[in-house]
Hints:
Elements: E1 6-10, E2 14-19, H1 30-44, E3 51-56, H2 67-70, H3 82-95, E4 100-104, E5 107-109, H4 111-118, E6 121-125, E7 129-131, H5 142-151, H6 154-163, E8 167-168, H7 169-174, E9 180-182, H8 187-199, H9 205-215, H10 222-225
Parallel strand pairs: 2-3, 3-4, 4-6, 5-7, 6-9
Antiparallel strand pairs: 1-2, 7-8
Helix pairs in contact: 1-3, 4-5
Amino acid sequence: MEEEAVKVERGEGWAEIVINRPERRNAITAPVxxxxxxxxxxxxxxxxxxAVILRGQGGFFxxxxxxxxxxxxxPPPWRKRQGSSWRNLHLGLFHYPxxxxxxxxxxxxxxxxxxxxxxxxxxxxRTAFLQVGEIQQGAMMPMNAAWLRIKxxxxxxARLAFYGDRVPGPELLRLGLAAECVDDDAVxxxxxxxxxxxxxxxxxxxxxxxxxxxxxxxxxxxxxxxxS
Length: 228
């Protein structure tokens, strides 16, 4: 059921936001975007949560937009909300006041790569890959372009966008897009260790640091840069 497509699980001082659609490789629909944004709001307001982990259920990060569901006949009732809900999710991630740790397992493709790039700290599996593959479809890449503008140089962004290929974990580390590259079966545990470490600092410390980082994003006006 769509209302179960996103789960919030609690640790000691941290939380996990889990895309729970393993049968669709955690692909994104408008209800999933909206549920993810609701989970961000829930954890944002909880002072006992110092950091969140973003991951996908079943060992997959996110396969992108669920095109099969989007193209159903008759069309799903949420089709017209797909673009706006996706944009609102990224605005929520941009302004989210706590560190987001991405458990990057298996792959993040197109929309999935944008979610990975939105994370403050990305822990990649050795065989996981990120693919900004919109060029293969002749499509725009607004969310990937926005996060790449924030997170890296134009040269690295161009390499990902124009090649449209699979960039594995070790290369993501070399390019500075992943903080660490670990064995595939160690990704989630490593994220939990980092979340616990952040939660162990004085209360409010992580929020202060995150706000300092957000303040340096003056190169991007999110209201105009995150377009659907």
